[in-house]
Amino acid sequence: MLNLGNVRVLKILLVLSISLILVIALSVFWFYRSLNEPIYHDKADQFIQIPKGAGTQKILDILVSEGILQNRYPLMIYLKLFADESKLKSGEYQFPSPITALQILEELQKGQERVIKITIPEGWTRFDIARRLAEKLPSDPPTSEREILELMSDTSLIRDFDPLAKNLEGYLYPDTYIFPVNSKPADVIKRMVEQFRKVWKPEWTERARQMGMQPRDIVIIASLIETETKMPQEKPLVASVIYNRLKRGIPLGIDQTVVYIAKMENRWDGTIHVSDINSDSPYNTRKFAGLPPGPIASPSASSIEAALNPAQTDYLYYVLDAEKKDGSHKFHVSAKDFEIDKRAYQQWLEEQRKSK
Fold it and tell me: Which of 4-8, 206-210, 267-271 has the lowest mean pLDDT?
């Protein structure tokens, strides 16, 4: 039989055991939460320098002092028990906010160098791209837009694909690129052309041949499509209008070619003027039938595919849908129906101008 003293001992042991279990459970919970809870900080746009040769404690102290980590001990314990401290790398890091301690460790194991992210939207011209590169690429003295445009006049990177190209317009593929901080404009331009060549499929060249066209013709048409609509489902329809007009010898009437002329002549102010529409430039598809002499923008893969696979329609016209106001278009066979919707669009546009 248990005496009173043994009962007391058992009770004490039970209380101690429960307390120990609670302490362990709370410690595990604290440990797990500390490693996985998102940490918000104000240094997401700044580079944090982790010097070469820094030990684990030094690295964690830097992160705590910068506010990236709130407490160094959970991550230090994790490194001692479950990870390899020798895999932590020096470098210049950008840590997004929020970020967990384990995600910080993952970044430190991958390593980072200071980089520049450059996004080139679909449909941008080489003039737009040159401006962005001049803004984004640090150099002393700064590289001007004019100097970058001169680099884009070197067609050696694309000569085998388009022997008639006068510049790299249409071949600077729109995408988001990551470059080392000391990259030069020529490095970026080369990478963009390489990306175009990587995206272009050999079967596209064969498809162009079957259509009785050169690959450069497809790029020109794709650039026109890109500037006319951003909706993937509309691109084959816009392509059909372009091909139908080409077959009938009707000027394409694409306003973005007029905008492109103004940009080439360094006089684009955001508005199409009567003098722009009357320009004698061969790029003026309002005045001259056929394709312009070259691409007018950087087309995406979807626009290239639309140029290679146009919808089979009788459409000759399209205009922005003034009712939907979502960037979509109405397509027409007859000029009469087109003019009705064109007037509705122009009326809506005038209302928008007045409201502004």
Answer: 4-8
